[in-house]
Amino acid sequence: xxxxxxxxxxxxxxxxxxxxxxxxxxxxxxxxxxxxxxxxxxxxxxxxxxxxxxxxxxxxxxxxxxxxxxxxxxxxxxxxxxxxxxxxxxxxxxxxxxxxxxxxxxxxxxxxxxxxxxxxxxxxxxxxxxxxxxxxxxxxxxxxxxxxxxxxxxxxxxxxxxxxxxxxxxxxxxxxxxxxxxxxxxxxxxxxxxxxxxxxxxxxxxxxxxxxxxxxxxxxxxxxxxxxxxxxxxxxxxxxxxxxxxxxxxxxxxxxxxxxxxxxxxxxxxxxxxxxxxxxxxxxxxxxxxxxxxxxxxxxxxxxxxxxxxxxxxxxxxxxxxxxxxxxxxxxxxxxxxxxxxxxxxxxxxxxxxxxxxxxxxxxxxxxxxxxxxxxxxxxxxxxxxxxxxxxxxxxxxxxxxxxxxxxxxxxxxxxxxxxxxxxxxxxxxxxxxxxxxxxxxxxxxxxxxxxxxxxxxxxxxxxxxxxxxxxxxxxxxxxxxxxxxxxxxxxxxxxxxxxxxxxxxxxxxx
Length: 511
Ligand SMILES: O=C(O)C[C@H](O)C(=O)O
Ligand code: SF4
Hints:
By secondary structure, the protein is of the alpha/beta class. It is built from 15 helices and 20 strands. Its cofactor is [4Fe-4S] cluster.
């Protein structure tokens, strides 16, 4: 097993940096389904551009490299203790080289362990089997989509759909609702794994297990096959679209599994995965630890690099407003939902820890007229102590909803960049104070890292790399105005229209 450690490093690096073939095919299909010039088409262009850049740079597709979860099937007699130890070392190694973001945080103190190791991280699950080789699989599922997982207890009442009973049709309603409730916040278009039955724990476990199925497989259970096909077809009629911008594709895949339940409980658990569906696997020789075959890599390989030139042309074609901080109130009030902005100059990152901190403390920098970027980047320091950005896409903004409006007013911030949109409180503050919300493309961490020219400083490093306040100098950083200072919110509109569309699926389908 002398090569097992190297194989695990390879598995982690490949999973974080290269999307599997089945996922690429699903994204390509979505791209072909959108009309040129729409916001959805533009977002998918950025996404495929980003996938190609991650391939080329061997850098994380998305800055949130998630909670690494390994599943291993091992021959009887294989030493699981040694394998666990090698996996942990491989995780620390991949973190050191910037292929993983340090993502393991003490839940009580907030301290980041810095190497992705800690209580409960990574997750490593073993199963014994009668084969003579090791089947090792890894999923890197980020936090934004994890937060959109949902569990239903039947019977229940659902927005738009009414009563969901204890039968296949009730299950159908829950699954349709799960896609609606995620909106664009889990970086749609997404993939879902559905677990039917079990208890609260085994139900979610089963849902996540489905994410290890190939997106192209066919469910051997006829009812589940029908359910999966129904959901993919109809969830795409909700009009939520890529990033929640509206559009033809909202869901890229649905896989459902079933286990028994006990009479009193009937759970439907849904695991939502973003488009950056990073899961790979390999067969490993149990004696040497060497890779003998990669999994999920059958069929045609889509090389998005070839399409990048065409995509760039299309993005340039949109009307763009140039923004550079400090921004005046007048300039901000001239922006409207739908405008594409191109930012150059300074922006400051701030996510969960910073927003909480700023709600009761002064800011180390003057934020008057400035731009806050909801982002927790992957950073590496070189031998001259200079920081470099390895991946830097937006994080889900709604978590800052309790703080954002007050902070914008108190510090004079004119624009916030994030993804997934914000709520009524922020919208009101944007109107009163004169501010905008700019939506960047979630997961496009290479694309945005490329717009960052230099790291000019950092504050509040005590919160750890992802949560610190990074001072970034950018050039031509593109984002879309999705909430303006006139009370308009694209997110509010899409949520409303998708709820109306969801109601079309109220009548029974599976009798
Ligand atoms: O933590 C992050 O950087 C992003 C997160 O995965 C999110 O989707 O909000
Ligand atoms: S930012 Fe988006 S693409 Fe990245 S992990 Fe979060 S949900 Fe996934």
